[in-house]
Design goal:
heterotrimer, A alpha+beta (162), B alpha+beta (524), C alpha/beta (434), A: 162 residues, alpha+beta, Glutaredoxin, 2 domains, four-stranded mixed sheet, 4 strands, B: 524 residues, Ubiquitin-like (UB roll), Alpha-Beta Plaits, Rossmann fold, 3 domains, seven-stranded mixed sheet, five-stranded mixed sheet, 14 helices
């Protein structure tokens, strides 16, 4: 069974059309994103091989991309993956307390998934939200000016809309 | 052509020459890890940084082409500091495996440390740990900790073998060379990454722990695995305490010949060194029993004498050197033998790959052709021999099955052989002479391109074996004919005198890269 | 209260301006209309006269960079660098989220001036919102004939595509961006050849920052003189700055390019928290050499900061008050650079990791006095010897923090040795999360 569903294939074709016909490799990053988004936030070897086959790019090159960029995960992630910024401006605003609060709230270590599969978190580098640090990002939503309490409240709210 | 100055010495070099090659032309080595003339430029090791007048920063020599009026310093204080800095960075996480690492003695890190560094480690923290001793293919072992991430191996599998098994995965100082998921490094040229690796990250599984390189002698010679004639170095042992079993030959690796094999060789050819020692017919036999060489020669001569010339045939072999072939041709003429063939039709043809690997699995079919030999006709000869059409057969090199030899023995008056490898039917022969391996003699082969290339004797012939021309000469002498030549050089000279394909050449004049005779080039 | 110009941020907070009609209603695409009546070289000359400096970090004059573009009948590309990732930097994200058509207009004008028919907007992958908004604006621009086969009815044609990153600071380096856009790891390329001659897919390419391009329509509509009046000599226009860290009103702000750092911190960003004094300021993103509290009377333009021994970089001001441990701050940055090093070349890959190991050890209380000079020596072997300037970006904080706060480093090392002997662990001041 192919991991490239007709729906994904349509999206793939649309992405590939953005680039010159002899530059299909450019689509590696967007295609991996599409796979990861359709697969609960992580990638498998099958996905990478499918991208390689679809674009005519060696598997080695696709795997290089998957292991180079921070946003891709080859390990399972929670349905809601929390990225907490740990770089200097956020650190100056107390992000360490946010990390501790999130870790305490979720009860798992960074990059581990909660038992119900709902959450995972990791500390990332600068998210370019320094004007409202400390921040965390879940999917496409950025939560800024956090306190340990507000961070925990965000998790509560996220947990409610399953 | 741009004129530039390197360390005060002026040079004029073709446009596009990079500074590493330019310095080399002037006799100066600029140290480097990632640069290799057979691969694209990566420029990542930063070891080849040099000072160029008017440039604000040091520049990497591998990616800088010669420029008119350029003034280059390869050993200034700035350059020395940068180099020592790069060495320190490379050694930072490098495991000091030297006592157990096969690369010791031919390791860029060791050599450059002695020449360009010499400082103690300043690392107070732990080194990065990575996976060690991982077989990644039938011939290659990977030690990720030792890797300096020069990317030569990855570029090889992308650009030369085009099989893409390898990549550099991850980011930053924890990144690693590795196999693509699901891949094995099993392409036909996998062994080349071991030659390429400047350190002991990629090592040869066959060679593992067998010898220290400083005990090994290097001889420039040729691979005999097919008609490509890839240029190689054969490593043979010089240390009496360094022996595993009885091996003398330890390793083959390619040497540069831009016209033939560039910098590479195939895996099948790489391991043909084993035949130098394994399964040798190094003692002479008389009717299957080990005998003194003189006794065997006498038996062989007597057998051939008993049969008349026209009813004698020679079945020669396309792995014989040009000199050996010339000598057997002389012997045939002297004895009135007219039925001579190479027996190429008896030999299995392989698959060519459009790159180095040739379908013709024998090194000197072309040389035989150029000397006017009939390449095929082996089957005919054997049929004639088995049906009473022949009285005597001299078989050189062909490993015939025992059943076949029994049939031959039954029908022939005389069955004589000369082989370097033992084989099933040799006990049936009246006399089995011991033929020296190509590694044990000077001589030449002509490759598929028509290039005449030099074999250099790396080892003394094993046991009682001798080069084919010595055996032909000895047989001829016993039969009353004096050979016109007594060594490889003279046999080649004889060829040069009477065979257009060799005109104007001499064995010693072939040089390290071989030569294309004009006549052969026209035929090619 | 000084009035600050609202040129780049004119449409901020007006949701209607996200759409084509709203943008046009607010005076949008007049710059493009004007540009289409000019000769390409005239536009380049105008931008040169406007002293537009590259706002991604290097401050290189934009028009001069444009002039380097290789001449060819084959493909040429414009790549928009929207990989905002220099710690402290927030300007390009807001520009894209609040006024995407302003960016598009700048891109079209630039492409017209350069004879470029294909542009890619490379947006860092975490900017989901910006990607969505910019893509929608691009779609509208196609629908309205602002881009496509005939730009505003002219003979000029242009395609624009949005391309996401996937989480790597090094993709903000222009050749790292190009490698990423080509579908590979974001590893910077060897220079020479420079992208203007050999860039995306090997073709001549200009890479420009979002803000740089967002300025272009305004240079067209305001004219060089009015634009320059908002700035300083050789640094034309108004400027976006982000102020973060220990201030009352962290945020991104548009001001004149001539504003001083003191004014930014105290007048614009509300000054420090009650009871706190200023200790140090990063003026232009984490890679810029740090300034002390008595060095803040400097104008926030590329040349003034250069003369002051630092750099404007990405105009990211990070304010540190007296609660800050410079040791832990530097440790935080060393974690950043070692994590973001692409790993390609030896001095950066090993140097950034080593610096981080040393800083971690120091923070952990196991530092030695000799570590300080050792780190300086390590940076000396990094700067200038690498494929790209990430190594320099890691080295400058090390060099400047030690230069200006050496006693604090020495005391930290000494003090923690003493404390650990006594079995104490000092509760750190401001810390990183790592």
């Amino acid at each position: 069974m192919s991991v490239v569903t007709p729906e994904l294939r349509a999206k793939f074709d649309q992405v590939v059309s953005r680039y010159p016909a002899d530059q299909r490799q450019s689509a590696v990053i967007p295609l991996l994103h599409l796979f990861q988004e359709s697969h609960g936030g992580s990638l498998t070897t099958e996905h990478q091989q499918a991208v390689a086959d679809y674009l005519g790019v060696p598997m080695s090159k696709v795997h290089e991309v998957t292991t180079f960029y921070t946003m891709y995960s080859l390990k399972p992630r929670g349905k809601q993956h929390i990225s907490i910024c740990g770089t200097l401006p956020c650190a100056l605003c107390g992000c360490k307390d946010i990390v501790e609060a999130v870790q305490e709230k979720l009860g798992v270590a960074p990059e581990q998934v909660t038992a119900d599969g709902q959450f995972s978190f990791q500390v990332v580098e600068c998210l370019a939200q320094c004007h409202q640090g400390p921040v965390m990002q879940v999917g496409d939503t950025v939560y800024g000016n956090l306190t340990p309490e507000s961070a925990k409240a965000v998790i509560d709210a996220l947990g409610k809309k399953q | 052509m741009p004129k530039l100055t390197i360390n005060g010495k002026e040079a004029e070099l073709p446009a596009g020459t990079n500074l590493i090659e330019a310095a080399k032309a002037l006799g100066t080595e600029i140290p480097h890890f990632c640069y290799h003339p057979g691969l694209s430029v990566a420029g990542n090791c930063r070891m080849c940084l040099v000072e160029i007048e008017k440039a604000p920063k040091l520049q990497i020599a591998c990616n800088t082409a010669v420029g008119e009026g350029m003034v280059v310093l390869t050993d200034s204080a700035k350059v020395k500091k940068a180099r020592a800095g790069v060495m320190e960075f490379l050694l930072l996480n490098h495991p000091i495996d030297c006592p157990i690492c096969d690369c010791a003695g031919e390791c860029y890190l060791q050599d450059y440390y002695m020449e360009h560094d010499g400082h103690a480690s300043r690392l107070e923290e732990g080194k990065n740990k990575k996976q060690k001793a991982q077989p990644i293919g039938p011939h290659v072992m990977l030690d990720k900790e030792r890797c300096v991430l020069c990317s030569r191996c990855v570029r090889f599998t992308d650009e030369v073998s085009k099989t893409h098994e390898l990549g550099i995965f991850g980011r930053g100082s924890t990144e690693e060379i590795g196999l693509a998921p699901g891949a094995t490094l099993d392409n036909a040229y996998s062994g080349n990454v071991v030659d390429l690796c400047p350190v002991g990250a990629l090592t040869d599984r066959e060679f593992r722990f067998k010898s220290r390189p400083w005990f090994l002698k290097e001889t420039a010679t040729l691979c005999g695995g097919c008609s490509m004639g890839c240029n190689v170095i054969l490593n043979t042992n010089t240390n009496p305490y360094n022996k595993v079993g009885q091996e003398r030959a330890y390793r083959l690796f390619p040497r540069e010949n831009k016209a033939v094999n560039q910098y590479w060789m195939c895996d099948e050819g790489r391991y043909t060194y084993k035949a130098v020692d394994a399964g040798r017919r190094h003692r002479t036999l008389v009717s299957g029993a080990v005998a003194e060489p003189d006794a065997a020669l006498a038996a062989a001569a007597a057998a051939l004498k008993a049969a008349a010339g026209p009813k004698t045939a020679f079945l020669l072999h396309p792995s014989l050197t040009n000199e050996e072939l010339a000598a057997f041709r002389w012997l045939a003429q002297a004895l009135g033998v007219t039925q001579v063939s190479l027996g190429a039709d008896l030999l299995e043809r392989g698959q060519g790959d459009g790159y180095l690997i040739q379908a013709d699995k024998f090194p000197n079919g072309r040389g035989a052709k150029d000397q006017g030999f009939t390449l095929d006709g082996g089957a005919e000869l054997l049929k004639a021999a088995k049906t009473g059409g022949l009285d005597a057969l001299l078989v050189v090199g062909h490993s015939l099955a025992d059943a076949e030899c029994a049939e031959l023995r039954a029908k022939l008056k005389a069955l004589v052989g000369a082989h370097s490898q033992g084989f099933g039917g040799e006990a049936r022969f009246d006399a089995s002479l011991a033929l020296a391996h190509a590694a044990e003699q000077d001589g030449s082969w002509t490759n598929v391109q028509g290039r005449v290339q030099r074999l250099n004797r790396a080892l003394a012939p094993l046991g009682d074996s001798q080069p084919g021309w010595a055996l032909a000469g000895a047989l001829g002498a016993l039969l009353g004919h004096a050979a016109p030549a007594g060594d490889a050089q003279s046999w080649f000279a004889a060829l040069a005198a009477n065979t257009p394909a060799f005109a104007g050449l001499s064995l010693d004049g072939l040089g390290a890269q071989g030569a294309m005779p004009a006549a052969a080039a026209a035929q090619a | 209260m000084t009035e600050h110009p609202k040129v780049l941020t004119k449409n901020f907070g007006d949701p209607a301006a996200l759409g084509y009609e709203g943008y046009v209603a607010n005076g949008g695409y007049l710059g493009l209309k004007k540009a289409l009546t000019m000769q390409p070289q005239e536009i380049i000359d105008l931008v040169k006269a406007g002293n537009l400096r590259g706002r991604g970090g290097a401050g290189f004059p934009a028009a001069v960079k444009w002039g380097f573009l290789g001449k060819t009948d084959g493909p040429k590309y414009l790549c928009v660098n929207a990989d905002e990732g220099e710690p402290g930097t927030v300007k390009d994200g807001p520009l894209m989220e609040n006024d995407p058509h302003q960016l598009i207009e700048g891109v079209v004008i630039a492409c017209y001036a350069l004879g470029i028919k294909s542009a890619y907007i490379y947006i860092r992958g975490e900017f989901y919102k910006a990607i969505r908004i910019v893509q929608a604006a691009v779609d509208q621009a196609y629908a309205q004939g602002v881009i496509g086969k005939s730009v505003m009815g002219s003979a000029f044609q242009l395609d624009i595509a949005v391309h996401p990153g996937a989480g790597a600071y090094i993709c903000g380096e222009e050749t790292g961006l190009l490698s990423s856009l080509e579908g590979k790891k974001g590893m910077p390329k060897l220079k020479p050849p420079f992208p203007a001659l050999k860039g995306l897919y090997g073709a001549p390419t200009i890479v420009n920052n979002v803000e740089t391009l967002a300025c272009v329509p305004h240079i067209l509509t305001l004219g060089a003189d009015a634009w320059n009046a908002l700035g300083t000599e050789k640094n034309g226009g108004s400027k976006l700055y982000c102020v973060s860290g220990h201030v009352m009103k962290p945020g991104y702000y548009e001001t004149r390019h001539s504003i001083t750092l003191r004014e930014l911190i105290y007048d614009v960003a509300g000054g420090l928290k009650p009871g706190r004094t200023l200790k140090a300021v990063v003026p232009g993103g984490s890679s810029s050499p740090i300034l002390t509290a008595d060095e803040i009377d400097v104008r926030m333009d590329f040349d003034s900061l250069g003369k002051a021994g630092s750099m404007l970089g990405s105009a990211a001001v990070i304010v540190m008050d007296d609660s800050t441990s410079m040791v832990r701050a530097l440790d935080n940055l060393m974690h950043f650079y070692s994590h973001e090093s692409c790993g390609q070349c030896t001095p950066c890959r090993e140097g950034t990791a080593w610096l981080h190991k040393i800083m971690s050890r120091i923070v952990d209380g196991r530092g030695e006095a000799a570590d300080i000079d050792r780190m300086l020596d390590i940076t000396g072997n990094m700067v200038g010897n690498t494929i790209c300037v990430l190594a320099d970006a890691a080295a400058f904080p090390v060099q400047s923090y030690i230069k200006k706060f050496r006693p604090e480093f020495e005391e930290y090392i000494q003090g923690h040795k003493r404390l650990s002997l006594l079995g104490h662990r000092e509760e750190p001041a401001t810390v990183g999360a790592h």
